[in-house]
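Workshop exercise sheet. Pairs work together: one partner reads the sequence aloud, the other fills in the structure field after running the prediction. Swap roles for the next sheet.
Pair: D.N. / O.F.
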Amino acid sequence: MQRILAATFVALLLASASRAETIPVRSFRHIGPFPVQAPLLIDSVDVHSKGFDSRSFLDAPLSREGLAASSLCAGDDLPAGGDGWSLGWIAFSFENRRFARVTLSLEGMPETRCLYVDGKAAEGALELVPGTHLAEIKYLLEPGRKASPAVSIETTGEGILSLREDGLHRYGMRDVLLGTRIAGVAVSPDGKWLITSYTTTREGGFTEHFCKVSESGSGRVVLRSGQRLAWMPRSNKYYYTRKEDGGLRLLAADPATGQEEVLAERIPEGYFQFAPSEDFLLYSQQENGPAERDDIYQILTPDDRQPGWRSRSYPARYDLATGLCQRITFGRKGEYLQDISQDGNKLLVSTSRSRLERRPTTVTDFFIVDARTLQVDTVLTATEFLSGGSFSPDGRQVMFMGNPEAFDRVGCQLPASVTPSMTENELFLYDLDAKSVKPLTKDFDPSVNTFIWSPADGQVYLTAEDRDYVSVFALNPQSGSIVKLALQGDYAYRFRMADHAPVLACLSYATMEPASAYVASIAKGKVAKSQTLFDGKTALGDAELGTCQDWNFTNSKGDTVYGRLYLPKDFDASKQYPMIVYYYGGCSPVSRYFESPYAPQYWNSLGYVAYIV
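Structure field:
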C-alpha cells in the first residue's frame, strides 16, 4: 500500500512539473540608481577587525517611496549607474488566481541584490495565497555598469499566474488590516465645528490614533492632535486632558482662535462627561469586589463566572470650582448614570438586580437624583425588559428603550401567548407627572439601536436595524411620525447631534466600501444639506473588489430568506467556484458593514463565492 501511495505521489509531482509555466518579466517600475560614496576610512578595519566591503552599500537604507507608482520601463532601458557605485530599486507585480508555489529567477541582475515579496525578504520557492503580489529588488551596481534584468517567474501550474502592470491589485489581507480608517465624528454645540477621529494601522501592528478639528462647510482643518478630544456641551470649545507633574490637567480650547485655557488641575483619573451647565463633571467610578479565593472555586450567581462581575460601578460628581469629588450613590448592586437633564439639575440613575426564579432574570430600578442636593425620587421599581432611558429637553419626560414586553407589553403587536424577540428594541415615552407611558415604535418594524433627543428641534433621532441595513430616522415625539433620513450608506453607526443646532453627523458603511463620515443639517425632519467628511473609498487605494448583489429565496416554510451574494471580480457564470455560506445564529442578520474579520471581499480574492444571510 505504501508503495502505491509513493508511486502516486511521484506521478502527481511529475504531472505537476510537466504543467509548469515560466513567465518572463520585461517591464519594471524603478527608482534610481543613486550614487553612493565610500565612507572616510579613519581606520583600515572596523571593530570586528574586518576591512570595508563595497558590497555593504546594499545595506544602506533607501526609501521605496514612489516605487510602486513609478512609470513602467523596459528592462533594457533601465538607467545605468555612474562612475562610482550606485544603489537602486526595481519592482513588478504579478497575480495568481489559485494557491501556488512560485520561484523567481533574477538573471541579469547584479549579484549584490535583495528580493522582497509583499514587503518581506524572500528567497527560494514561495508559497503564495491567491492575490496580487509586489516583487521588489534592491540592487547594487558596480562603477560603469547597468542592470539588464532577465527576470522570470516559474510556477507549478498553467494559467494561474499573470503579470499586473495597471497599478491595481486584488483586495487582500493587507487591505483588511492596514491603512487609515475613520473612527468617529462629533459636532460642536452650534454645529459649526467638527472633531473627526482616525486610526492608522501600519505593517507590524503599529497603530496611531489621531483627531482633526475642522470647520463644517469649508472643511478647513485647524488642528491635528494625537490626544482624545471632545466638545464642551454649551460653549463651543473642545476639551482634553494632559498628564502633568502632580496629576491630570483638564484644558479647553477655542477652535476659532486656538486659545487654550486650564479648567482644572489634578482631576481624578477615569471616564467622565461634562454637565450641560459646564460647572461640574460626572464620573463613572469603579469599586473592586471581594477577591476570589485561591483554594476554592466559588460562584455567587451564574453571572459570577464572568471576569470582573464582582466589581461595581457608581456615579460621582466632581465640582470644578472646589475640586471636590463625591459619590452620588452607595450600594452593593452597582449604579449607572443614564442621563442628565439639560439644565444640569437632574440625574437619571439606574440599578439592576438578579431575579433567577422567572424571566426576565434581571430587573431594574430607575431614580431621579438632584445633582446638587442628592435628594431622590423613585421613577420605576423592578421594571422588566428595559435597557436605559434619556430625559426630554425640558426634563418632564423620559424616553425609555426596551424590548416589546416592557411596560406589560404595551408596545407589543404579538398575541399574549407569543414571546417576542429579546433583542428587538422599542421606544417608550414616559410622562413623569402623569406616570403614563406611550409606545412610540409599536408599528415601526425596524429595531432601534440608539437614539438622541435633540434639544435644538425637539425631535428624536435614532438608528434602527432593518434586516441587514441600519439607517437613521427622525421621530416626532408629539405626533409619533417616523421618517427615514436620506443619508448615504447602508450601515449607519456612531451618530452624534449638535446640542444646540439641528446638525447630525455619523459614520456609515456602503456594502462594498469602508466607512465614510457625513454631516447633515436637518430642517423639518428632512436632510436639508449634507457633506462628506471622509470618503471611505479612499481607504481602498488601488484595490480591486468583486461585486455584491441581493439574492433572496423562499424556504420550505414559505418564509423569504434575505441574503447577499458576493462574486469575485471577472466572475464567469459558466464556471464553477467554491462557495462559503456565512450566517449568524443569533436574532439579527449579518449586517452590511464592510470591515470585518470575516471579509467576503477577501474571500472573493481567494477565488470563493460568498453567500451571506
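Discussion prompt: The chain has a mean pLDDT of 92. What would you look at next?
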